[in-house]
Amino acid sequence: MVTAVARFMGKVNNQFQLPVVPLLLLGILATHPIFYSCGDKAIGADGTVIAEFDWNGKQHITLEEMMQEISELPEYKQRQYQDKEGLETYMLLMAESRLILSLARDEKLNEDPEILKKVQEYLHELMVKRITTQEVDDKLTLSEEDYIQYYETHKEEYVRPAQVRLSCITLLDKDRADEAFAQIKGGKDILEVAQELSDRGELVGPGANPASPGDSDYISRDSFPTGTEPFLDAAFAGEKGTLHDGVIEVEVQGQKYFMMFRKDDARDEYQKPLDDEDVRKSVERKAEREKRQQLMDEWVRQLRERAEVKTYIDRIPEAQSEEEATAEEETEDPATEGHPEE
């Protein structure tokens, strides 16, 4: 095949004064759209011949065929073949794909059972997708009232919980925490202490962001795992602008943390409106998904009724428990008793 392709490539280059384009890798052969789009088209159709080769007879590629194929590609791919250089590249790709497919037919791969099975599976997949689009997706329409109704039904999903923002230091060592807290109580700003600890790589947990050491950003009660309740209770109960009086010890999954903070800000629970950009996108996406599922369920239900589907669950064997499976294995392969050598 390489010799035949090389001969063809030389012929094309002589005719069109084009640079040689290397053969496509096998992986590209499996994925490039033109290998499926051009291989079975009538060759030698009326039009402007832009390439030809001999393989079981004269084969032609026309300008019209090439332009039609390019027009069927996704827009981002079409942009690759807009200028003369791109068109020349596509022409060679078409020639290569037809050469490779011609060789594949000579090898009777179009009769290979494994390939035919995959083709059948893909055909079924396309058919299911098309009929689903026809019977469900094309009938999916929602009005503004539908979006409003979904939002009102799921308003709790669009609530920003109460939050606090802290200047916070979290350490793993109690002595270091006591030392840091003493510095703060002595008049050193908590953020200055946080910066020093961050520079030494000692900060963990809230406030450990090296870009802004000590700043916890806004946090809610569900921001932290079980075990941090003493810290969260103190943070939400404290007054803005005040340093919590003491180091708080918490334990999460067996690891102890030592925390100190100043409460800088707080904001109440807030119901996000439907006209919030993020809320609107979420509502539209989820409402459409919910409506599509309803249409899908109804369509499948009607199909089942139309076909009078019957199921016989009692004919499906029960799954064996682990104990039963073990007992069965022992029965099939009993341990043999050892016998003394004579």
What does this entry look like structurally?
- By secondary structure, this protein is α+β, with helices and mostly antiparallel strands.
- Among the domains are: 2-111, no CATH class; 162-268, Chitinase A, domain 3 (Roll), CATH 3.10.50.40.
- It contains 13 helices and eight strands.
- It has helices spanning 2-16, 26-31, 34-37, 63-71, 75-78, 84-106, 113-135, 144-153, 174-185, 190-199, 229-237, 277-307, 322-332, and strands at residues 49-54, 58-62, 159-160, 163-171, 215-219, 248-252, 255-267, 270-271.
- The strands form three sheets. A four-stranded antiparallel β-sheet has the order 5-4-7-6, with helices on both faces. A two-stranded antiparallel ribbon has the order 1-2. A two-stranded antiparallel sheet has the order 3-8.
- Strand 1 (49-54) and strand 2 (58-62) form a beta hairpin.
- Residues 1-45 have low confidence and may be disordered.
